[in-house]
Design a protein that fits this description.
Layout lengths: L1 H16 L6 E10 L4 E11 L4 E13 L2 E12 L1 E4 L2 E15 L6 E15 L4 E12 L4 E11 L1
Antiparallel strand pairs: 1-2, 1-9, 2-3, 3-4, 4-6, 5-6, 6-7, 7-8, 8-9
């Protein structure tokens, strides 16, 4: 788990080294997963390909419950639809890798398809908050994931 977060941190720092004004963002999320039935934390890196299209890499870790632990790494695409001068809604589509570890059995690594939507409010030119809901289609482990987050754009 430490290696995963270290890898994600290095990737995010590398993105900042080649950043152009306003094309990148980094952020954090507080999550709730309906299958694991517990809260989690996440980090995300975003790349604005255009004003309306954004790619996102996110790593999430859900707290252990009933000897079940879960983490995932996702690559999602957002299409930003302005709903006001500083707000936007977005549909979300993506793919991910999830690991479900019961502690009693071997790790269960599964591929996930992500479908969802979110809403973002830009509090300043560089700082935003968001709410998001997505459904992860995972063989025998489908779950809804609801999150609130914040991001810094640079």
């Amino acid at each position: 788990m430490k290696k995963l977060f270290l890898t994600m941190f290095v990737a995010l720092v590398s993105m900042s080294a080649m950043a152009q004004d306003g094309k990148y963002a980094i952020g954090v999320n507080l999550l709730y997963g309906t299958k694991i039935e517990n809260i989690g934390i996440g980090v995300k890196g975003q790349y604005y390909a255009t004003d309306n299209i954004r790619a996102e890499v996110a790593a999430d870790y859900f707290m252990e419950k009933n000897d079940l632990k879960m983490w995932d790494v996702n690559l999602n695409a957002h299409y930003l639809i302005p709903t006001g001068s500083s707000m936007c809604a977005y549909p979300l589509v993506g793919i991910g890798i999830t690991d479900w570890n019961s502690g009693l059995f071997s790790d269960k690594v599964k591929i996930a398809i992500n479908l969802g939507a979110g809403y973002q409010i830009n509090l300043t030119d560089v700082f935003s908050i968001n709410v998001e809901g997505k459904y992860q289609i995972i063989d025998s482990y489908n779950q809804g994931v609801f999150s609130v987050g914040a991001a810094y754009r640079f």
